[in-house]
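@channel sequence for tomorrow's demo:
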Amino acid sequence: FNIVTNHVFSMEETLSAAVRTSSLDGLHEKILREQIGKQQSLKERNARLEERERISRDIHNSVGHTLSAASVTLDAATMLIDRNPELASDKVNQANDRVHNAIESIRGAVRTLDADDGTVLVKDYVSSLADLCKNFCLDTNVKVHNNFGRISDSGRIDLDTASFFSGVLSELLTNGTKHGGATVFVVMLTMDTGNIALKVSDNGCGWGEISYDEKSARLSRGFGLRKMRDYCETRGGSFEIDGEDGFTVLLNVPRRVEND
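structure tokens (generated this afternoon):
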């Protein structure tokens, strides 16, 4: 009888231990799921905050600069209105164009904020690049030819790529004019279902005929160019420079968002 009783007690203890263990495992799993959920929620919140900060910065840099330039142009028109009415009228038209560009930039930013998938419409993005080139031409009197008006892609691209290419274009235009003395640029943007490529060429002085080692050394010393190369290679793309006759940079990265 004692043996049977002890065996029953032993079974009960084993079952109780198993139940306690199972309860603890269930509690631990629940806590773990809650922690993962909180971490994911925090990660998504930080991502949204970072994206909104980027858009805010883009609006400040683009729209702020455009409106400031429009204000300066209007001031110049006011001073010219008595002495040279025709030139003053041209200045007013330039300022009007810039204000309209600023409005379109804001509308594009609002559409971007409304997108929950971290993408932007290609047509909105191409329009912003066209505005960037147009404003650069107005500020510098440098000519920038591009193929943006012939791009009919109806899809979307990820904001990370869009922001990167915008920064690259702005930097190459500025540096080509400042350091290379370029007066003409040719900008080509191409897209398909697999890749996005940006090619920027200018008629500046370039690097001339230099060795491969010297080219690599200059690329390593140039923070902006090195950053472009590293980004492309990290994304599984490619980065090429030709500085022998003028200066040409070609960037190609995989397209994360396909056409609709």
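heads up for whoever presents: The CA atoms of residues 125 and 162 lie 7 Å apart.
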